[in-house]
Design a protein that fits this description.
The complex is a heterotrimer of chains A (494), B (243) and C (217).
Chain A: H1 2-15, H2 18-26, E1 28-30, H3 40-59, H4 69-78, H5 83-110, H6 119-142, H7 146-159, H8 166-174, H9 181-213, H10 230-240, E2 242-244, H11 245-248, H12 250-271, H13 296-304, H14 307-331, H15 343-365, H16 374-377, H17 382-385, H18 390-401, H19 430-439, H20 453-464, H21 477-484, H22 486-493
Chain B: H1 2-23, H2 30-34, H3 47-54, H4 56-59, H5 74-79, H6 82-91, H7 111-124, H8 147-157, H9 159-162, H10 172-176, H11 180-189, E1 202-203, E2 206-207, H12 215-227, H13 239-242
Antiparallel strand pairs in B: 1-2
Helix pairs in contact in B: 3-7, 6-7, 8-12, 11-12
Chain C: H1 15-20, H2 27-59, E1 71-77, E2 86-92, E3 105-114, E4 117-122, E5 133-135, E6 140-142, E7 149-151, E8 156-158, E9 167-173, E10 176-181, E11 204-205
Parallel strand pairs in C: 1-11
Antiparallel strand pairs in C: 1-10, 2-3, 3-4, 4-9, 5-6, 6-7, 7-8, 9-10
Classes of the chains: A mainly alpha (494), B mainly alpha (243), C alpha+beta (217).
Chain lengths: 494, 243, 217
Amino acid sequence: MHWLKDTYNWLERRIQLEGPVKDAILHPVPKNTASWWYVFGSAAFTLLLLQVVTGILLAIVYVPSGAEAWSSLQILNHQLPLGWFLRAMHGWGSNFMVAVVLIHMAQVFFFGAYKFPRELTWILGVFMLLMTLGMAFTGQVLRFDQDSYWGLGIGASIASRVPLIGAPLVHIMLGGPIIAGATLTRFFALHVFVIPGMLLAFTGLHVWMVLKLGVNEWPMPGRPVNRKTYIKEYHDLAHNDGIPFVPGAFWKDLVFSGAILAAVAVCAAVFGPYGPTGQPDPTIIQTVPKPDFFFLWLYSVLSYLPANLETPFLLIAPVLGIAVLLALPFYAGEGEKSWHRRPVAVMVLALVAVSWGTLTHLATFTPWSPVMNAWSGATVPAKFVHNLSPTERQGAVVFQSKQCRNCHALGGEGGQRGPALDTVATRLTEDQLIRQVVQGGGNMPAYGTSLSPPEVTALVRFLTTLHPVGQPGATDASRADAETNSPPVKAQAH
Amino acid sequence: MNLRFFSATGFSALALAASLSFISGCDQAPGASRAEVVERPDQITDFKTLYTQNCAGCHGNDGRNGAALALSNPVYQAWVDDATLQRIISQGEPPTQMPAFAQSSGGMLTDAQVDALVKGMRTAWPANGAFNGLTPPASQPSGQSDAAQGQKTYQTACAQCHSKPNQQVTDPTYLALVNNRTLRTLIVTGRPDLGHPDWRGVVNGQVQPGYPLNDQQVGDIIAYLNSLRSDTPGQPYSPHSQQ
Amino acid sequence: MTDPHNTPEPNTPDLVQEDQKITKDDPRVVSRRWMLMGFGALLNGVVGLAVAVPVVRYLLGPVKRKGAYNSWISLGSLEQFPAGETRLATYENPFNRPWDGETAKTACWVRHTGANKFQVFAINCAHLGCPVRWFPQSSLFMCPCHGGAYYADGSRASGPPERGLFEYAYKVVNSELHIDAGQMPTLSNPASPGQQAGNNNLPVINNSPKGCGSCTG
């Protein structure tokens, strides 16, 4: 084994990295940072490397051409041995990476690790989050399927709302007047060169600063950060009650990274690659575009914004959000780190997490969208068909053929844009139903011009049958009154 | 050194399992089959898919218990010819609610897909022997029909059920939403899923009085129902209440 | 920093120690060198700027003056569009690249209101550009993304859109329907910007691949 040592020495005399590396890995860190809570940063780094490797492997085959990108993915999926697996690894790796980066960020926020002297580390981290999301979006574009095509359309439509420069901005983003080959190539350059290059550089700097400034100590209530004394306090903590970073804390990073990689591989093997969905042919209009998982929340937000708030919100909210994140370490650079003493921070984190979860959940079943095929594909439940009069049954046909079902569910099937109508007769009287159908209102279009009187009548007759067996439908009390007590009314009229 | 031992054996086991699974053909992993090829919507010719997306809403799953005609009714399948099915799917059946599905009529289906629907129905719902050797009334009206005669036939053959308040077919609103072909199809082929007999009039194993109906009688009943049509069908209040 | 090498190779200078042996120069020499380095930096700055300007121009290449992407595009014979109906039509976008593939195609909805009067709607929802679908039975355009709906004349019926569907200018030439199109319509890029300036001298391009997309076969 003597030759091994000789070779090492020969190399080391020329490279001379042993000293700095030893410094870096053996530097003392506070003992309680060797925690499973501190593994997400390194896991994100591991996932970044995975994305680089799988990305390069995919780039060997992928063709960034508007005409051929989609087919090259089909070849990856179906003809190259394990091509599907690499696509799945890259796709799931991307999902895991966004998730781990978000968790890492939440943990850093929760532990007050962005405070002095790690402000710049946090700021770099904010930009790295944006780049990670940028990678996720541009990666979805490279899939160049229908979701990607119309996702670009959504992006262009948002860009067009920028005042003054909206129009040229759209053309710069698309690389021309329409979504086409030129759009794909520029997103390819962003996804493969620009953003990863910046992300790797930022990652290097981020890690460098973690090494130089030390891993954030475990936050203890009653030990606030003070700019004047913190450096010395941290130094004492690390040296008096510290352990070398490697292996004391590092082994947990290694194990977790390995576990994350294994999880990516299992997900890839079990759930397979993402798409591509249908080919990016804009003349195929039987499509329901949807963004990837980590943009679903945005999809929900865009559906719920009132029309007059949409442009201001789209343009101001992201800027404001990023500004708040960047300003955070300056606004709250000192003080308590422990969550026990930071109730506002804990509540903000909880609010963001719950909102994000809710919006994402909503986007999985898009209650705001008409279900385009429901009118012809979602069957009228048999219990609503039997025991109907012929007119009412024709009303059920009208209900289907006039696409009411696209927005209104029956028996749990159909759109959820409007209310489900299983028990509508208990809520609306016949007259109210007629008015609602004919005039619309409450975000329902008016159908007065597209339904003939017999169609309206049959439809409403059908709707009046939609009530539970033991519960009668709503009736207009004054109408019944008018019928039974008509003589006095008539007398007054005369 | 327990830890080292465990990690060493653990990792070798993991690595072994991983390489074994790859050698044994990872292309068999469940994920591989999830990478489906999405067909262009105009290339789909699978009957089940086409029927589920385009027809099931009104005609019901498996062609029965729907709001509109039961397509799986063997009598209907035996009675209707390919050309008629093709034409109705392609161009719709105004003024009923049956929409036009062919692209040439503003729908979403290609001619090949319409063909696939017709052929698929014939395969999925065979009609063999549905007539039991009897000859049903023709699908096209022939000769003169007589509304007055039709009313008499209606009273014998139809009124027993259709005079019930929940079974009214003489309602002008109903009549405005169906045409003669709908009426003829219903009278001749029935709605077995809803208990409506076909032209042979068999209900609960018993032939009802006045049945089976012949071609003339069917035409007469339709003429009678046509005489009940209103100029202002479906108006919410009857002319009497408007004074 | 500790020297890790117990036995340095013979005849190899220790570079680290050599580095530290550099002595301070005469201050005047240093100031001249600093000045020369300043020159070098300035030169790089000037050249860099000179090179960067073309790069900016290159990156702004897709930006053209309003309406420059548009031309009159034939959607084919009028017979494809029955009076009183709304049909899907497709055309090849005039500004395209050989590698665009099927993305060069564009779809639009043509409503024939009668007597050679038309309305040609962009396929893109006025909200965020998703493809709207026409439902003749309920006379509505519905958008699959965020639930926008429009009436037959393109006006907003419900949902998040803040305006009606984008409409292309059209003209009838030799019983063919021509539309003024070429760019994806968005809130700041109108479907037919030339019409606002009264520019009717656009080039005419006849490249509808199949004409009416709903009339094949």
